[in-house]
Design a protein that fits this description.
Elements lengths: L2 E5 L2 H6 L1 E3 L13 E7 L5 E7 L9 E3 L1 H11 L5 E5 L5 E6 L5
Parallel strand pairs: 3-7
Antiparallel strand pairs: 1-6, 2-5, 3-4, 4-5, 6-7
Length: 101
């Protein structure tokens, strides 16, 4: 699986978007446009979009809007860690990050 741990920065938590970290950007398609987000391993799916112009380095910003913001706020606290699975080109899957010992 192609999963990275995303620290849920205050801005992500309040506005419903996140930036894909540089080391994992290659797993997000290069074209801007719609993408689906699955909120939880077996959760509901929402529509989002890939924006590659928001960041100066061209890495993907995933814009999930109010649906993503509301899910973040119902499941997490600011600065919590969220597992982001980029295994599929069509769906990004979120899950609670595994605790490490």
């Amino acid at each position: 699986m192609t999963v990275f741990n995303l620290k849920l920065q205050e801005t992500y938590f309040k506005q419903g978007f996140f930036n894909v970290i540089v080391d994992f950007d290659r797993f997000v398609r290069a074209e801007e446009g719609p993408i689906r987000l699955r909120l939880g391993r077996n959760g509901r799916e929402i529509q989002a979009s890939i924006n590659r112009h928001a960041n100066n380095n061209g890495t993907a910003r995933i814009m999930g809007g109010a649906d993503l913001r509301n899910w973040f706020q119902s499941q997490f606290e600011p600065m919590d860690t969220v597992a982001v699975d980029l295994s599929s080109r069509d769906v990004i899957i979120f899950d609670k990050a595994k605790k490490t010992a």
